[in-house]
Structure formats: C-alpha cells, structure tokens
Design brief:
With about 180 residues, this protein is α+β, with helices and mostly antiparallel strands. The chain has one domain: Aminopeptidase (3-Layer(aba) Sandwich). Helix content is about 25%, strand content about 30%. It has 4 helices and 7 strands. A hairpin with a 2-residue loop joins strand 6 and strand 7. Helix 3 crosses helix 4. The longest helix is centred in the middle third of the chain and has 16 residues. It is globular and about 40 Å long.
Length: about 180
C-alpha cells in the first residue's frame, strides 16, 4: 500500500466514497454528486499548499495512473489529516474511508498508521482527534488497535448533519518507530 496526494482526477473515487449509501451509512447518508468536483478541487489546493494532508490509499499491485485521469479509479480509499475549530479550540483531526471491495484487508489501519507516523516526524499537528460513529466497529477498532485513547462520546457535525461519535485522541509524538 502507498499513499499519494489527492488529484483532480480523483472525482470518481470521491463520488464512490461520499455519494454511496453504504459508504455513508455511518455519516448520515450519501451526499449529492453535485459539488464533488468542487470538493476535489478544494482538497487538491489544500494538499498542494500542505495545509491539509489528503492522501489517496493505493493498494499494492494496483496501477495508479498518470495523474491525468488514466487509472484514477485505482484508489482504495482516503485518509486525511487537517486542522479546524471545534468547541472554540483549534484541533487536528484524522479521518478515513475505504471502499467496500478493499475493506477487511488492513488498508485503512496501515494508511492511518502511516499518516500518524508522518505527523510524528513532521511535529506540527499536536494531539490528533478521530471521531468515528459509535456504530462503526471497524473504524473504532482501528483507533483501539493503533493506540488512540477513548475520550467519550460526542455529537459531531459532518456535511451539515449531526451524528454520534466516539471521540479518540492520540499524540503522534508517542508513536514508536517501526523497524523497516
């Protein structure tokens, strides 16, 4: 598995992740297809500016394409790390999605760990928060397995909707380096 920055050619992957009822079941339901191209453009700008890390998950053995649209559907999912204001405080938040045909293969866990390791080495993110739905066993399992601390439950807005989450935190500075 490798991670790469989001590209303009990732619109189809965004549509598959964000507009699908199954993928969005834990996040209040599918989003409308309209606006996905704009969302990708905003994410590409943020990734290029290095203000947000928006990484597409590319499985081993999958051709990723040339960045001009060829092979752009090969992403298995996404992992993001960004800052925003929550309850009047600036926080760093990590989130991820893995397409159904790639779930259960450990890609989400490896991608989240890779981004946390990069955050540890970068040093600017501080304490990282995650807010998976309380009913999302797989994402809560990733948090538990990677050493996040459960803080409690919290109602969180996403795409204009409120949903109940389990609030987790982790300090990337405390993540041990893994042997190659």
């Amino acid at each position: 598995m490798r991670l790469r920055d989001v590209r303009i050619s990732d619109v189809d992957a965004y549509v598959r992740m964000r507009c699908d009822p199954v993928m969005m079941a834990e996040l209040g339901g599918p989003l409308p297809r309209e606006g996905m191209a704009d969302k990708v453009r905003r994410d590409v700008r943020s990734a290029e500016a290095d203000t947000d890390w928006i990484k597409m998950i590319v499985p081993d053995g999958r051709e990723d394409g040339d960045g001009a649209g060829v092979g752009s559907g090969e992403a298995a999912g996404i992992v993001t790390l960004y800052t925003h204001t929550a309850d009047g405080e600036l926080i760093s938040e990590i989130g991820w999605m893995v397409l159904p045909e790639f779930q259960g293969q450990g890609l989400g866990k490896r991608a989240v760990r890779a981004v946390l390791e990069r955050a540890r080495d970068d040093g600017r993110w501080g304490l990282v928060h995650a807010f998976p739905s309380v009913t999302n066993a797989a994402s809560n399992g990733i948090c538990r397995t990677l050493g996040f601390t459960a803080v409690g439950e919290k109602d969180v807005p996403f795409a204009g909707r409120i949903f109940r989450t389990r609030h987790w935190t982790i300090d990337p500075a405390l993540i041990p380096c893994q042997a190659p």
